[in-house]
Amino acid sequence: MNFLMSSDFDATIAETFDKPPGGVGVREASIIALQEIFGSNFDHGFIERLVPEIKRMTPSQVVKLALYSGPRQVLLAEARAFMSRSNGTLDQYVPAGKGIPLIWPDALPLPVITEAFVRVKLRELIKQIGQPLADGSSWPKPCRGFRIFWDRYCRARSAFYETWGVRLDFGIVSSGHDNFINKCFDAWGVPRPDFMVTDDDLRSRAHAHLPPALRSKPSPEPFKILYREWQEETQAGGNGSKAGRIRNALYIGDSAEADGGLARNLNLPFLWFQPRGRKPPVRDGVEFLVPSWIMLLPLFGNRAGEMMSKGRSFREIVQATLFKA
User: Fold this and answer.
1) CB within 8 A of 214, min separation 6: which ones?
2) Whole-number Å distance between alpha carbons of 26 and 139
3) Long-range pairs of 186-195 with CB within 8 A, sequence gap ≥ 24
4) How far apart are CA 254 and CA 12, in angstroms?
5) What is the pLDDT, as a whole number, of residue 60?
6) Of 146, 98, 105, 147, whose CA–CA distance to 122 is shortest?
7) Residue 322 has what pLDDT?
């Protein structure tokens, strides 16, 4: 039997929304990218009206709104000129086979402009990874309890399989980006996750058939892509499904709306990561409140292992080991 823990990244695994020492966070990197692509005709006050929403918006949503901030044809001409100037200098920021080529199309330029926006933003943000903070740590910090959880998870995996015959994997579903996430794990000096689906995947030609609304949370599609890839890699087959439901996975995230919505759309147990102790809104139907990743350590214990070996659902395991009466 195979089980999959999955999680968001930003503000769940890493405190990426805290401003780095260099002063260039998500908002600032977005401004730099939009200015480089659209030039002086871009409405620089536009970004101010999006704060703090920009942290939760997909790149295509930001670019689409930016195109309404000034004379559209002029902005498109600036973007096309930028694409000619870039000449391969942005290729390194997205893994091969992900995203789309920076080639100006005759029609529908939004996807290519979005690709350029992502890569310029990443260029600026990746520079900040590992920069020292005043308390002696580096940017971005792991979220509350994550380092302890991850160290325990990495140590426990093989022993867990040997004892219970259960494979327990971890995957990330994020609107973030592969290279940034991997470099954060590298900066922390810990192993990278084995499975990941990010905005880089969802922008690619392989998923171009999906309408934009289905490529980001709370749509279940990003998780379905991760789950299929995990099944193929682990040869999990259909052993986690029953009556069309996924029983052997859970999802962790900081947004009751986006992350919680994804989990509810798939009937997955949703663990709402909320280190500041906020109470979940009733309308969002949050089942499990998690103030620290340390709270999840019992999932590596004997009781959880025994329940997994017997094919119990992840919801039952969470209820019995993390939230028992």
Assistant:
1) 221
2) 13
3) 187/129, 187/130, 187/138, 188/142, 188/147, 190/147, 190/150, 190/151, 190/154, 191/154, 194/169, 194/170, 194/233, 195/4, 195/6, 195/169, 195/170, 195/171, 195/226, 195/229, 195/230, 195/233
4) 6
5) 84
6) 98
7) 92
pLDDT at 243 (0 to 100): 45
Angle at 63 between CA 272 and CA 51, to 5 degrees: 50
Yes or no: say if 126 and 271 are a contact pair by the CB < 8 Å rule. no
Sign of CA dihedral 51, 221, 252, 191: negative
At residue 282, the 3 state secondary structure works out as helix
Which pTM does this prediction carry?
0.90
221-271: pLDDT as tens digits: 999 999 999 999 987 655 555 545 799 999 999 999 999 999 999 999 999
Burial class (CB in 10 A: 0-12, 13-18, 19+), 130: middle
What is d(CA 13, CA 44) in angstroms, rounded to the nearest whole number? 31
pLDDT for the residue numbered 22: 87
Q: Are 314 and 320 in contact, with CB atoms under 8 Å apart?
A: no
DSSP 3-state percent helix, strand, coil across the chain (nearest 5): 50, 10, 40
Other CB atoms within a 10 A radius of the CB of residue 31 amount to 19
Which residues, 6 or more positions from 64, have their beta carbon under 8 angstroms from its beta carbon? 110
Q: How many residues in total does the chain contain?
A: 325
The DSSP result for 115-173, as a single string, is HHHHHHHHHHHHTTTTPBPTTS-BSSPBPTTHHHHHHHHHHHHHHHHHHHS-EEEEEEE
Q: Among residues of the chain, what percentage have pLDDT more than 90?
A: 67
Q: Which stretches in the chain have pLDDT values below 70? A: 44, 46-56, 236-244, 277-286, 325
Q: Which residue has the tokens 């703090």?
A: 52
SS3 4: strand
User: How far is the C-alpha of 224 from the C-alpha of 251, rounded, in Å?
Assistant: 12
